[in-house]
Amino acid sequence: MSSDVNVVWRRGDGEMPEKVKYVVKAAQDELLLRSLQLPFSVVDTIRYNASKNDQTVNEYISAIVMRSIEPA
User: Fold this and answer.
1) Cβ proximity of 58 and 32 under 8 Å
2) What angle do CA 11, 15, 18 make, to 5 degrees?
3) pLDDT tens track for 18-60
4) Domain locations in the chain?
5) Count of CB atoms situated within 10 Å of the CB of 57
6) Cβ contact 53:60 at 8 Å
7) Cβ atoms within 10 Å of 32's Cβ, excluding its own
8) Does residue 17 contact residue 9 with C-beta atoms inside 8 Å?
9) What does the DSSP 8-state code read for residue 54?
10) Which of 67, 68, 43, 70 has the alpha carbon at shortest distance from 57?
11) Cα(first)–Cα(last) distance of the chain, in Å?
12) What is the pTM of this model?
């Protein structure tokens, strides 16, 4: 097994490249969905609706939560 690693970006290197941002956001979305322990059908619906609205899963779920706690 090789221990060679290509480092794409490190904290403090300046702005994160777009391809790194994409991977980080995708990982955050997966962690959020797994932590909620929702049924697969609900997870698929969330992914679909987030994609349809051009949002990350995190942004989509945050919007739902914010709408539900807005004062009446």
Assistant:
1) yes
2) 110
3) 888 888 889 999 999 999 999 999 999 999 999 999 999 999 9
4) 33-72
5) 22
6) yes
7) 15
8) yes
9) T
10) 43
11) 59
12) 0.71
